[in-house]
């Protein structure tokens, strides 16, 4: 059997969907719940692009240093909770941490 070459997922329509605050909030929450911080950081960048025109504009709205924020949101970056909260707030969303016992977390 001949295998077809894989093609990258087409995200071109995602920016349009993420202009809707309800859709964007759901997308961010699902990415955050997944537990993969790099996935969540990519989601934040995508929502920033759709909602504010990019990380630069969202960083300015949040009063955060754009350069350090870009570094925080790259692969391996570790943004602090305060920066995350300010950035999410600048996008027009409210971010709250949810903590559950480990045995309940995956049920």
Model description:
This protein has 107 residues and is mostly helical. It has one domain. It is built from 7 helices and no strands. The radius of gyration is 16 Å and the shape is globular. The relative contact order is 0.12. The model has no long low-confidence stretch (mean pLDDT 84).
Overall 3D shape: globular
Radius of gyration: 16 Å
By DSSP (H or I, 4+ residues per run), the number of helices equals 7
Extended strand count: 0
Spell the H/E element sequence.
HHHHHHH
Coarse structural class: mainly alpha
Spans of at least 5 consecutive residues whose pLDDT stays below 50 are none
- Mean pLDDT score: 84
Number of domains: 1
Question: What distance lies between the first and last C-alpha atoms, to the nearest angstrom?
Answer: 40 Å
| Strand percentage | under 5%
Helix content: 55-70%
Biggest sheet layout:
none
Salient structural properties:
mainly alpha; 0% strand; 107 residues
Describe what is shown at a glance.
By secondary structure, the protein is mainly alpha-helical.
Any chance you could write out the topology, listing elements then pairs?
Elements: H1 14-17, H2 21-33, H3 37-52, H4 55-62, H5 66-72, H6 81-90, H7 102-105
